[in-house]
Design goal:
The chain is mostly helical. The protein has helices at 6-25, 29-46, 51-61, 67-76. α2 packs across α3. The protein is elongated and about 35 Å long. It comes from Streptomyces pratensis (strain ATCC 33331 / IAF-45CD). This is DUF5133 domain-containing protein. It holds the Pfam family DUF5133. Residues 65-87 are annotated as: Disordered.
């Protein structure tokens, strides 16, 4: 697996957070797709198959404390589509 740059990883985390916030504010098909796309990208970048693991791995890769991602999950809630299945 290629290791993403810290900047690219931060952009992916921000994109995921923004998509989750927008979807929570006003859920539409487009916002749901944006969450799925951002989650997929984050999982690919971290080599994981589920968003919670991707967030933890991203925190570890950035040298951050894993508690930051748990705050995001508490703020946005957990959705069933947070687990991606390998195709």
């Amino acid at each position: 697996m290629l290791t993403p740059s810290p900047q690219d990883l931060r952009v992916a985390l921000a994109r995921y957070a923004d998509a989750r916030i927008e979807d929570a504010r006003r859920s539409t098909d487009a916002t749901a797709r944006a969450v799925e796309d951002a989650a997929y990208t984050l999982c690919v970048m971290t080599g994981t198959q589920a968003v919670p693991q991707a967030l933890h791995t991203a925190d570890t890769m950035l040298g951050a404390r894993p508690t930051g991602s748990s705050a995001l999950r508490r703020a946005t809630g957990t959705r069933r589509d947070d687990n991606l299945q390998a195709v």
